User: Which sequence fits this backbone?
């Protein structure tokens, strides 16, 4: 049985080779024996200059260097790529137009597609010593419904998927690879898109031997689930047994909500999942670390979850012993690092998936799209949290830079979180004196945003290649510029230079459209839709 970690190096944050070495060394000490390097277009393919262009792609030599390092640790470095969908950044280039079906999906049954995939595997074979490979194939929701539909007419989408998979498996075998793949498309096409939906009722998920037999032999299906309870996971693993072959399970250490990790949610979902996987003798288990919407979260922020998951997988359920072991390996207090969850966990239950620290950081001060989630009193809570992180950052820990970033994040939110609500209330009341008082908070917001940006950039530059940082410089630079504009516009109104603030004339609607109670936090991890309701 194998326990591994998958590191997302495709969502802008491409870890440097040196940082990968450091991180994988810690994982090896935790007991992990494999690492999957998730690279959609961030690896070098001979003859494909636009593949990973300006994205910080790993050269073949970099991967070989890392592979050699991993072997010395007893860790298998496994390529984790995409051979069907999730190829947005590659397919932006016109050079790949002929092999694009629709959106981020490759064009199936197109000879040029398989010539490209052949070059892909040639690169992997030249870079990795492992001959296990994760070929992806998840979430291809529009498969066969774009250029494929125009060329061939409507075809059974299971048949399209199966033909493509057979071709990819044949190419993989040519280079000696044994593939695994995410299993969701086999379930989604049979269940109107449903798979791991967090409902905790697997009885709604229909599956059959007939569908399972459509998957070519020699492929290991991997069931991924980051949300569900023990019973649901057990039922889904039983359904996967219909594939009649070894299966894998992929859980998650939550690094994909924004700047903050969610160790608590990771433990709440993954510890039961590990027990089920052991009971059902799942041979391949790994923990994913995705980086949705910009890869903002440091991988080191989920070390507590990664260690506890490995310990429970190995049979150790003693939390006191787990905390002690963590301290010995990492040199940091388990609970101190667990506290990095708190900017997203101050106002919700463990089971809730929320990320107010991101959407309120970027919530426009005057437009206030997310002001409906503000209950009142949040500023004070973030001020207390900022003081905690400031103290942790002052101890000279190896993670001082990380704690300082969280201090700066909480510090911004200690003035900005309620600011829009207060401004609108003062404006609607016609209270210019209150608006004048709030000018100090507007000034502080600008200064604290600048301090957070500096702290975030320091963490990024300490862990990742520079490519992708420009995204966050644009985002945070824009937030600073917008905060300055809001400050100056309010000042102009207070001073009588303008007679109204148009943005504050508009009443705020419920951002959740009634799906969540007003005054409660939500989950919203999409910067472009976060900062404005206008087109970006």
Assistant:
């Amino acid at each position: 049985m194998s326990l591994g970690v998958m590191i997302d190096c495709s969502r802008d944050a491409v870890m440097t080779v040196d940082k990968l070495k450091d991180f994988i060394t810690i994982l090896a000490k935790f007991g992990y024996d494999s690492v999957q390097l998730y690279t959609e277009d961030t690896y070098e393919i001979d003859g494909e200059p636009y593949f990973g262009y300006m994205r910080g792609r790993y050269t073949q030599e970099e991967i070989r260097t890392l592979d050699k390092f991993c072997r010395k640790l007893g860790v298998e470095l496994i390529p984790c790529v995409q051979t069907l969908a999730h190829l947005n950044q590659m397919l932006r280039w016109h050079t790949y137009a002929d092999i694009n079906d629709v959106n981020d999906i490759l064009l199936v049954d197109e000879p040029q597609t398989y010539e490209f995939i052949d070059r892909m595997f040639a690169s992997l074979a030249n870079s990795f010593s492992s001959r296990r490979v994760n070929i992806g194939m998840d979430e291809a929701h529009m498969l066969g419904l774009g250029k494929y539909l125009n060329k061939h007419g409507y075809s059974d989408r299971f048949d399209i998927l199966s033909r493509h998979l057979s071709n990819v498996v044949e190419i993989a075998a040519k280079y000696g690879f044994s593939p695994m793949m995410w299993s969701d498309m086999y379930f989604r096409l049979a269940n109107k898109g449903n798979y791991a939906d967090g409902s905790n009722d697997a009885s709604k998920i229909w599956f059959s031997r007939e569908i399972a037999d459509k998957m070519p032999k020699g492929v290991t299906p991997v069931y991924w689930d980051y949300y569900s309870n023990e019973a649901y996971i057990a039922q889904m693993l039983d359904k996967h047994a219909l594939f009649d072959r070894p299966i894998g399970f992929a859980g998650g250490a939550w690094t994909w909500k924004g700047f903050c990790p969610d160790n608590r949610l990771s433990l709440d979902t993954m510890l039961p999942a590990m027990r089920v996987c052991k009971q059902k003798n799942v041979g391949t288990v790994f923990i994913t670390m995705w980086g949705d919407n910009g890869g903002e979260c440091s991988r080191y922020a989920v070390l507590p979850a990664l260690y506890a998951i490995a310990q429970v997988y190995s049979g150790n359920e003693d939390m006191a012993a787990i905390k002690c072991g963590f301290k010995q390996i990492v040199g940091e207090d388990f609970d101190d690092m667990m506290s990095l969850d708190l900017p997203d966990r101050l106002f919700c239950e463990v089971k809730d998936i929320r990320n107010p620290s991101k959407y309120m950081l970027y919530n426009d001060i005057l437009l206030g799209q997310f002001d409906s989630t503000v209950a009142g009193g949040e500023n004070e809570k973030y001020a207390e949290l900022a003081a905690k992180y400031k103290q942790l950052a002052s101890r000279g820990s190896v993670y001082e830079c990380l704690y300082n970033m969280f201090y700066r994040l909480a510090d911004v939110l200690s003035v900005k979180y309620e600011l829009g609500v207060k401004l609108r209330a003062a404006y609607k009341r016609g209270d210019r004196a209150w608006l004048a008082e709030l000018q100090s908070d507007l000034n502080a917001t600008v200064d604290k945003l600048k301090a957070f940006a500096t702290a975030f950039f320091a963490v990024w530059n300490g862990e990742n290649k520079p490519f992708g940082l420009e995204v966050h410089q644009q985002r945070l630079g824009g937030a600073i510029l917008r905060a300055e504009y809001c400050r100056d516009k309010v000042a102009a109104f207070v001073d009588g230079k303008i007679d109204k603030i148009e943005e504050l004339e508009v009443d705020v609607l419920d951002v959740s459209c009634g799906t969540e109670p007003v005054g409660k936090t939500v989950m919203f991890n999409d910067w472009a839709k976060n900062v404005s309701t206008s087109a970006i």
